């Protein structure tokens, strides 16, 4: 049965991820209510398939339609879509599938061997250290995934506002409930994620349905696999891309955008030194590197989530919400209290990689046909599915009203170019940051210096300051180049 759930998860994750404008994080958010009827092991095994299946679906739309399903697949559009336009769409999809397999397998091997070590190290974390971790996650996410720090911080503030609704966990006082009893437990994370990602996207597409040019699917023909020459060409890029992605999964930077662009940039620089440069004409290395980087980041993000309880991307944040729905808190104690679930989940990651290859190599043309569904029918179906999923989870009309209101917030965020990842990270980590801060101040009798007492907390703040300095220097340099 568990093998079947891996297969179903991979199938559903890829099916949702392959739809334009959706993506892996929305795949997990939309399918979260479906798993509530399953036992925890089966649910998380299915989630593993959805997690990686959605990532491959992101790349499929990027290659075929030049429309990345998620920001992590933007780098794949540059050379992947050129390959498709030159009649090599099946080879491009095969490159993406094998790159996802290589990056995911390498990351999962490292997680299996080093997640327990991370869990042991996590036992040295106290309230001050967890507060420092949350601050690093907030600032890094806000600074990295937005084109301006102001937009990132604004999105962060919106997420923190949503997280503060409900009963204060320290004092027991109700906050921002407006006299509505249903809000005493706070706003359900499922409502927030489905509202922001699904309903917000539907409203955004509906607002532009007559403005955007109609996009037609690419014609797919030929062999959905690589020959020896193509494989030898792509292999070094897969390995280099994985090397970029592995460390970034443990950094709370909001996703895999940075390593995918770094990997793409390295391959482009290496290509310039070649006798016959391929970039700009559908270079297979330009697709292989970002694909393996994105999946390596996703795999190591799973290790960071399980061992530290720290979501380093929007998708990982939704996965953390799924753990909390079952009354479990990822972190060092998860490996002792729920060892059977953790190791079954890690094993399913290996199985899921193989299943994805089996599904996506021969059936890529079928995924492309999903893109032929007219947009009005496609997004109307998504809306119905989102409403039914939220109502089935809680049977609450208040949740449906909140779904619409949060969907409007998601629409406005897209309209004005504010990123969604900081909102989701703030909703998940906001309560942790607040509780850790107040506990630290309570123990120290209100002395804020207690937040800086430990070497670990100081190290985290130092890394944060260094990261802000690097980002600031790069922005100044870029502005100087533009002025010149």
TrEMBL record:
One Pfam short name: TctA
Membrane-spanning parts: 27-52, 92-118, 130-146, 153-174, 186-206, 341-364, 376-409, 416-434, 454-473
Residue intervals of the DUF112 domain: 3-424
Database matches in InterPro entries: DUF112_TM
Keywords linked to the UniProt accession: Membrane, Transmembrane, Transmembrane helix
Superkingdom of origin organism: Bacteria
Keyword set includes Repressor: no
Protein name: Tripartite tricarboxylate transporter permease
Organism: Nakamurella leprariae
Lineage: Bacteria, Bacillati, Actinomycetota, Actinomycetes, Nakamurellales
């Amino acid at each position: 049965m568990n093998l079947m759930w891996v297969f179903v998860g991979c199938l559903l994750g890829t099916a949702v991820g392959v739809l334009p404008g959706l993506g892996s994080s929305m795949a997990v958010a939309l399918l979260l209510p479906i798993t509530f009827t399953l036992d925890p092991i089966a649910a998380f095994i299915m989630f593993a398939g959805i997690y990686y299946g959605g990532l491959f679906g992101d790349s499929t739309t990027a290659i075929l339609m030049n429309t990345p399903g998620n920001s992590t697949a933007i780098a794949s559009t540059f050379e992947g879509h050129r390959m498709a336009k030159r009649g090599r769409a099946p080879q491009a999809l095969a490159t993406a599938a094998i790159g996802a397999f290589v990056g995911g397998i390498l990351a999962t091997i490292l997680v299996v061997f080093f997640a327990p070590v991370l869990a042991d190290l996590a036992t040295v974390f106290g309230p001050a250290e967890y507060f420092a971790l949350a601050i690093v996650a907030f600032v890094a996410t806000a600074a990295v995934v937005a084109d301006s720090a102001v937009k990132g911080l604004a999105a962060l503030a919106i997420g923190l506002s949503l997280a503060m609704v409900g009963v204060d966990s320290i004092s027991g006082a109700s906050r921002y409930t407006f006299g509505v009893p249903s809000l005493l437990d706070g706003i359900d994370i499922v409502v927030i994620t489905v509202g922001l990602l699904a309903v917000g996207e539907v409203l955004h597409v509906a607002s532009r349905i007559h403005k955007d040019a109609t996009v037609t699917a690419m014609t797919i023909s030929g062999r959905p696999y690589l020959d020896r020459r193509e494989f030898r060409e792509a292999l070094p890029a897969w390995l280099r891309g994985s090397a970029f992605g592995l460390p970034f999964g443990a950094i709370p930077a909001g996703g895999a955008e940075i390593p995918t662009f770094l990997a793409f940039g390295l391959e482009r620089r290496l290509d310039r030194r070649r006798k016959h440069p391929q970039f700009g004409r559908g270079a297979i290395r330009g697709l292989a590197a970002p694909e393996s980087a994105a999946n390596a980041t996703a795999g190591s993000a799973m290790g960071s989530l399980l061992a530290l309880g720290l979501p380093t991307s929007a998708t990982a944040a939704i996965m953390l919400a799924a753990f909390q729905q079952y009354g479990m808190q990822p972190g060092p104690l998860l490996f002792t209290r729920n060892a059977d679930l953790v190791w079954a989940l890690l094993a399913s990651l290996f199985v899921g990689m193989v299943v994805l290859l089996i599904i996506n190599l021969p059936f890529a043309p079928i995924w492309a046909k999903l893109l032929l569904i007219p947009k009005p029918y496609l997004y109307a179906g998504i809306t119905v599915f989102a409403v039914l999923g939220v109502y089935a989870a809680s049977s609450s009309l208040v949740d449906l009203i909140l779904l619409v209101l949060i969907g409007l917030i998601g629409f406005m965020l897209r309209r004005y170019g504010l990123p969604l990842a900081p909102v989701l990270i703030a909703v998940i980590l906001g309560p942790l940051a607040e509780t850790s801060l107040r506990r630290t101040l309570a123990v120290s009798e209100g002395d804020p210096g207690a937040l800086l007492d430990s070497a670990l907390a100081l190290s985290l703040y130092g890394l944060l300051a260094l990261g802000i300095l690097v980002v600031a220097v790069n922005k100044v340099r870029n502005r100087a180049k533009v002025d010149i």
